[in-house]
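Good morning,

Attaching, inline, the backbone tokens for the sequence recovery test we're adding to the shared suite. The designed sequence is right after.
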């Protein structure tokens, strides 16, 4: 197969779809890999590093899109990239389509085969290609939250860990999945007073055991969200419905009644956000204030630690890239039901039920398109 890796163009996005070590594995198996010049420069890889493992360098994204059978990226394609996709070309990347009708319409129009990292599943019922970035984002959310609680950022001047004689900051984490667990790990490590809300009793039991009762693991209800949000210095919003738009759990009324200078990090912003007052921001302008509450809603948080994030992501995506290259997209999708769950758009049709429902578009079972 002919595989291409364009340079990411989203604001302050330095990650890259494939690192040289993974390229080597593909070229050793006879696949051709084309890399856009400087695609890996943000994490310290030169064009020569890719040439040394058998890749070819092309000068522009347009050449990559025009040449290859499969595009491997990190973030959702921007409008200029979507315009370059062609029928039957495979796009393998994060898509987060549920809150993004313009992107979905462009991908449908392209006729491309679009497989989203975030909806690929596994036998344990987890999301293996979302997990590594959830780990990074969860840990970063506490770093970001601690920073925006500083007075210079509009925060209320609270040190999350406190100091002897002064109580620690109060952290509310909404969602006890991969993001929430990693956020709790960082917050507990800093010495914060941590509450986690989730609707799964199994998750709550796991959190109690994992943190040895150093967090308060509470069943999530509207009353609980209201109570703990109004008490919190920092809210980490990270509830997830796979493939679908994030549920709006923190309301405008909650925001109005929260402590002045408190902060929210909405990690679910890629899926539309869990907070009614959230809208996507960038690393260049990461925060804004609504009713004296600082909102941090960067849509590609792991891009700020691009080297760590890229290696973590590549470790997870590489087996699937190799399978797609070896079997072709039809063979790979038919063989692997979990990879098939990642198929969001194919030949002008929406093939992910949650995306179709969120955008009020027609859904088609992907198997009818593959057989």
């Amino acid at each position: 197969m002919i595989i291409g890796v364009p340079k990411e163009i989203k604001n302050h996005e330095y990650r890259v779809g494939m690192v040289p070590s993974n390229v080597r594995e593909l070229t050793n198996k006879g696949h051709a890999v084309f890399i856009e010049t400087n695609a890996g420069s943000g994490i310290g890889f030169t064009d020569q590093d890719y040439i040394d493992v058998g890749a070819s360098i092309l000068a522009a994204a347009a050449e990559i899109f025009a040449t290859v059978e499969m595009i491997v990226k990190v973030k959702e394609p921007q409008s200029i990239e979507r315009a370059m996709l062609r029928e039957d070309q495979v796009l393998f990347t994060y898509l987060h389509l549920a809150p993004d009708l313009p992107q979905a319409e462009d991908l449908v129009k392209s006729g491309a085969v679009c497989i989203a990292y975030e909806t690929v599943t596994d036998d344990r019922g987890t999301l293996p290609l979302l997990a590594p970035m959830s780990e990074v984002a969860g840990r970063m959310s506490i770093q970001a939250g601690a920073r925006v609680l500083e007075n210079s950022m509009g925060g209320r001047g609270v040190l999350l860990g406190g100091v002897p004689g002064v109580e620690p900051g109060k952290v509310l984490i909404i969602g006890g999945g991969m993001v929430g667990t990693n956020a709790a790990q960082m917050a507990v490590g800093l010495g914060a007073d941590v509450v986690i809300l989730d609707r799964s009793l199994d998750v709550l039991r796991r959190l109690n055991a994992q943190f040895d009762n150093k967090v308060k693991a509470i069943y999530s209800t509207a009353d609980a969200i209201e109570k703990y949000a109004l008490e919190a210095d920092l809210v980490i919003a990270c509830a997830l419905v796979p493939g679908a738009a994030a549920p709006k759990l923190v309301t405008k009324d909650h925001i109005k009644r929260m402590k002045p200078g408190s902060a929210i990090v909405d990690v679910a912003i890629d899926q539309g956000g869990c907070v009614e007052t959230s809208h996507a921001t960038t690393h260049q302008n990461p925060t804004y204030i609504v009713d004296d509450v600082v909102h941090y809603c960067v849509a590609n948080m792991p891009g700020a630690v691009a080297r760590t994030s890229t290696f973590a992501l590549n470790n997870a995506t590489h087996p699937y890239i190799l399978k797609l290259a070896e079997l072709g997209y039809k063979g790979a999708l038919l063989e692997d039901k979990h990879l098939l769950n990642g198929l969001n758009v194919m030949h002008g049709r929406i093939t992910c039920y949650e995306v179709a429902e969120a955008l009020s578009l027609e859904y088609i079972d992907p198997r009818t398109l593959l057989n």
